[in-house]
Amino acid sequence: MNSSDNIEAPRPNNILDRSIAKVSELLSLLFAFTVLISFYEVLSRYVFNSPTIWVHETASFLGGSLFVIGGAYALATDKHVRVVLIYDSVSARTKRYLNIFHHLAGLLFSGLLVFAAWQMVSNSWFTPWGEMRLETSGTAWDPPFPALLKGLILVTVSLMFIQFTLHLISEIQGLQEEDDV
């Protein structure tokens, strides 16, 4: 395999990927906030014997939210998991076909996730008789974090569906350009 066979790893090359990467990098600062409020909880609980009712749920919600957003970020920056032992040993054209297969599988998977997430959101945001009422945690503080996280999952997997579509189009165009040369 010579250097002309190498395909540049796709970096955020469309406006959606670039936007997701920038927003995700800003949101990653919330990990530091999570550490700070967790430290505050430890001090409050063990030094001042005055535990909070909000830190654990807030930290869990932020961590879960950032984990969900991480999927779209990994796709936008091409940091997703792949079997490099195989991928790195094939030609550039075969890599394109593997990418197309990956994007088609991703479309199917994210499409099914959108459907499942919509079911979760509708159950957690609306009562059986159709009124809007966000599902809450059921604790003493009782924030609507479960419903909000389910909404974030729906938005994120919908974005990933669009990302997979854009990546598939780009990969097919790359194949057509190779054929034209």
TrEMBL record:
Q: Which residues cross the membrane?
A: 26-48, 54-76, 97-118, 147-169
Q: Where in the cell is it found?
A: Cell inner membrane
Tripartite ATP-independent periplasmic transporters DctQ component domain span:
35-135
InterPro entries assigned to the protein according to its UniProt record, in alphabetical order: DctQ (IPR055348), TRAP_DctQ (IPR007387)
**Cellular compartments per GO CC:** plasma membrane
**Topological type in the membrane:** Multi-pass membrane protein
| GO MF, one annotated term | transmembrane transporter activity
Membrane: is it a keyword of this entry? yes
What keywords are annotated for this sequence in UniProt? Cell inner membrane, Cell membrane, Membrane, Transmembrane, Transmembrane helix, Transport
Which PANTHER family does UniProt cross-reference here? 2,3-DIKETO-L-GULONATE TRAP TRANSPORTER SMALL PERMEASE PROTEIN YIAM, SLL1102 PROTEIN
Q: What does this protein do?
A: Part of the tripartite ATP-independent periplasmic (TRAP) transport system.
Self-association state and partner proteins as the record states: The complex comprises the extracytoplasmic solute receptor protein and the two transmembrane proteins.
Q: Per the similarity annotation, which family is this?
A: Belongs to the TRAP transporter small permease family.
The name this protein carries in UniProt is TRAP transporter small permease protein
Organism, by scientific name, is: Alginatibacterium sediminis
Q: List the lineage, top down.
A: Bacteria, Pseudomonadati, Pseudomonadota, Gammaproteobacteria, Alteromonadales
